[in-house]
Design a protein that fits this description.
310 residues, Putative LysR family transcriptional regulator, 3 domains, activator, Arc Repressor Mutant, subunit A, D-Maltodextrin-Binding Protein, domain 2, alpha/beta, LysR_subst-bd, single chain, WH-like_DNA-bd_sf, DNA-binding transcription factor activity, 11 helices, eight-stranded mixed beta sheet
Length: 310
C-alpha cells in the first residue's frame, strides 16, 4: 500500500523541482524529504528520481506515479467534502488574496460570512497570485484569489481548480487627457516615465509586455506594487502607469484614468476535489456575491475622468 504522505512529496517535487523547495514548502528538512522519497522508491520497486546537477528530475515512471498521485489526492479531497457536516459551519478557512482585492472583495465577503456563519472563521493572508497555486497544493491555503491579464496568462499547474470571479478593465493613469485612441495610448507614451510593479509580479510583467507590444521598452522611474501609492506618484511626478480597476480606491486630484483594451480576470482557486467542502463553498459563494456587487456598481465616468473642480 502506497503512503499518501510520500505521494504528496513526489507531487510537490514534480512541481517545485528541488528537494530544498519541497522541504521549505511543507516544513520538512531536506534530509527528511529525501528519506521519504527513497522509501517510496523501495516500496514501488522502481527508480522514480534522477539527479541532474543540484536538481532532481522525475523518471518516466516517477512522472506516471506523480500523475496518479494528483488523482489520489483529489479523490481524498472529494471524500473529505462528502463527509463534512454542512448543518453548522465551523472551523477555519485559510484564504490567500492579492492586495487590491482586500477592500472591494475580501472585506465584504468576510463580513457577510460572519453574519451568516458566525462559527466559521476566515484567516486571510496576502499572497501574490504567482505563489498561490503552490501554497494551495502545499496545504498552506484552502482557497485563493488569483488573476491573469490578457497578455499574462496564469500558470496554475495540475491539482488546482478555478472558477471565474471578476473581469476588470485596466486604466492608463496620467496627469493629462490622452488625445489618441485607447489602443494607441501606450505607444504615444514611449518616451514617458513609467511606474511599474516589482519584477516577479504579474502586474510588472503586464506593464512591460504592454509596452513591448507597442514597440518600446519602458523607461522605469519607480517600482511600486501599491496602486494607491502609484496613483499618488502619478499625480506628484507626472509619470504614467497601468492600473487595474480594483487598484483604484481613491483618485488623487489631477490624475486622469483612461480605460484601455486590456483586462484582468480574477478567479477563485482551490485544490482539486475540495470545491464542495461546505466551509470552502460558503466562502467562495460570498466572494462571488461581493464580486457581483462590485460589477453592478463599477466606476462612473466622473470617477474615471474627474473634473478640475473636484
Amino acid at each position: 500500500m502506497l503512503d499518501v504522505r510520500k505521494l504528496r512529496l513526489l507531487r510537490e517535487l514534480n512541481h517545485r523541482g528541488t528537494i530544498a523547495a519541497v522541504a521549505q514548502s511543507l516544513s520538512y528538512t531536506p534530509s527528511a524529504v529525501s528519506q521519504q522519497l527513497s522509501a517510496l522508491e523501495r516500496e514501488t520497486g522502481r527508480t522514480l528520481l534522477v539527479r541532474t546537477g543540484r536538481r532532481v528530475a522525475l523518471t518516466p515512471r516517477g512522472l506516471l506515479l506523480a500523475e496518479h498521485a494528483e488523482a489520489v489526492l483529489a479523490e481524498l479531497e472529494r471524500a473529505q467534502a462528502a463527509l463534512a457536516d454542512d448543518s453548522v459551519l465551523t472551523g477555519q478557512v485559510r484564504l490567500g488574496a492579492f492586495t487590491t482585492a482586500f477592500t472591494s472583495l475580501i472585506v465584504p465577503a468576510i463580513a457577510a460570512l460572519a453574519r451568516s456563519h458566525p462559527d466559521l472563521s476566515v484567516a486571510v493572508r496576502e499572497v501574490d497570485p504567482s505563489a498561490a497555486p503552490d501554497m494551495l497544493r502545499g496545504n498552506l491555503l484552502d482557497v485563493a484569489l488569483i488573476h491573469e491579464y490578457d497578455n499574462v496568462p496564469s500558470t496554475l499547474g495540475s491539482g488546482i481548480d478555478a472558477e471565474p470571479l471578476l473581469d476588470e478593465v485596466v486604466f492608463f493613469a496620467s496627469t493629462t487627457t490622452p488625445t489618441v485612441e485607447p489602443a494607441e495610448i501606450i505607444r504615444a507614451h514611449a518616451k514617458g516615465r513609467w511606474i511599474v510593479g516589482n519584477p516577479g509580479t504579474l502586474c510588472h510583467t503586464m506593464a512591460v509586455r504592454s509596452c513591448q507590444a507597442s514597440g518600446f521598452e519602458p523607461t522605469v522611474t519607480h517600482r511600486v506594487d501599491d496602486f494607491d501609492a502609484v496613483l499618488r506618484l502619478v499625480a506628484a511626478t507626472g509619470s504614467v502607469a497601468l492600473v487595474p480597476q480594483l487598484g483604484v480606491v481613491e483618485i488623487p486630484n489631477g490624475v486622469v484614468l483612461t480605460p484601455l483594451p486590456i483586462h484582468r480576470q480574477t478567479r477563485v482557486a482551490y485544490r482539486r476535489g475540495s470545491g464542495r467542502q461546505p466551509a470552502l463553498a460558503a466562502t467562495c459563494g460570498q466572494l462571488r456575491w461581493a464580486a457581483s456587487e462590485l460589477e453592478q456598481v463599477g466606476l462612473s465616468a466622473e470617477a474615471v475622468n474627474p473634473s478640475p473642480a473636484r
